[in-house]
Amino acid sequence: MTHSFCGVDARAAISLMGAAEHVQSLTTVCTPHHGMRLVDNYNRYPERYRIDMVEKAFEVLGMSVRNVNEFTAKNLAAFN
Q1: Which helix (H) or strand (E) holds 3?
Q2: Model confidence over 8-34: pLDDT tens digits?
Q3: How many CB atoms lie within 10 A of CB 38?
Q4: pTM
C-alpha cells in the first residue's frame, strides 16, 4: 500500500524497474495517477502563480519545484 506520490513511484518500480516479480498487488491512496492540476496551472499561467507561493504548496506536499514537471497531466498520461 502506498500514499500520494509514492504510488507513482511504486508503479514505476513495478512496470519499469523489474519489481513485478516481488509484488502481488498494489493499493494506492490519494495518488495523482492523472497528474496534478496545481502543476498544470503553474506551468500554464506562470504570471498568475508566483514561484514562491507555489513552492510553499509543493513543500507541504513533500515536493520541490525541480521535480514538478514530472507530475503534469501530459507526463502521467504518457506513463499510464
Answers
A1: strand 2-3
A2: 889 999 999 999 999 999 999 988 899
A3: 17
A4: 0.70
| Residue 61 contacts residue 31 (beta carbons within 8 Å) | no
Distance CA 56, CA 54 (A): 5
Length of the chain (residues):
80
Coil vs helix vs strand at 55: helix
Is residue 36 within 8 A of residue 77, CB to CB? The reply is: no
| Band of pLDDT at residue 67, cut at 50, 70 and 90 | confident
Look-up of cell digits 502543476: 39
* Cα(39)–Cα(13) distance, integer angstroms: 23
CA 55, 60, 61: angle at the middle one, nearest 5?
Answer: 95
Quick check: 40 and 73 in contact, CB under 8 A? yes
d(Cα 25, Cα 9) in Å, to the nearest integer?
14
